[in-house]
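User: My advisor, Dr. K., asked me to get a structural model of this assembly before our group meeting. I'm new to this, so sorry if the format is off. These are the inputs:
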Amino acid sequence: SQTIHQWPATLVQPVGSPLSLECTVEGTSNPNLYWYRQAAGRGLQLLFYSVGIGQISSEVPQNLSASRPQDRQFILSSKKLLLSDSGFYLCAWNPMGGLTGEQYFGPGTRLTVT
Amino acid sequence: GDSVTQMEGPVTLSEEAFLTINCTYTATGYPSLFWYVQYPGEGLQLLLKATKADDKGSNKGFEATYRKETTSFHLEKGSVQVSDSAVYFCALIRTYNFNKFYFGSGTKLNVKP
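Assistant: The format is fine. Below is the predicted structure of the whole assembly, which you can bring to the meeting.
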C-alpha cells in the first residue's frame, strides 16, 4: 500500500534562518506531488506541484522553493524564513493519470517562525 | 477561474443534531467534487467524493450529492457525534487537469456532548 511521510513533524526556526522540509511517498511510481500551506484558522494554499523529477510549478511567488530530486521525494526550502512563513505544511500526492484525481495527504509539518 | 466557496464556521452542534455544511463551486466543464476532513494536528483525509452530476458520495454516515444545476455539493449527516469534531474542506478538480486541486476555506465543526 502507499504511504506518505513528512518530516520533521514540528519545527521552530528564527527569522532569517533556512528551511528544508521533506516529503517521501512509498508504494507508487511517478506520482504527482504537491506542497500546501495552511495558515492558522485558514484554508489550504497550494504552493507547488510536480509531475516529474525536476519539474516544479509554482502557484504563489514568495521566498519558498521546491525541488524533486527523486521520483518519490519532494522538498520544500527557503533561504531566509519570514514570520509569515509560519503555518502547517502539507505534502500530498495523487497517481499520475488517476481517473478521479483524489489526493492523499501526509501528516503535515507544523512550522513556527520566531 | 475555478473556485470553491464554503459556509463560514465554526459550526457548533449538540450530539445527535443534523449537520449541513454548504459548498458551492465555480468551474468550467465537469469537475470531480470532494469532501476532506482534518482532525486536530493531522493531515487531510478523504471523506467522500462524486465524479459526475447526480452522484451521491457517502462515508461514515456523511453524504453529499453533486448538483450541477445549483453547482453545489453540500455535506450532510443525520446525527453527529463528538468524534466528528474537525475541519471539513470541500474541493474540486477538473477532470482533464489532475494537477490542480481547488479547496474551500474549510468549516470547523464543534460537536458538544
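One thing worth pointing out at the meeting: Residues 19 and 113 of chain A are 10 Å apart (CA to CA).

User: Perfect, thanks a lot.
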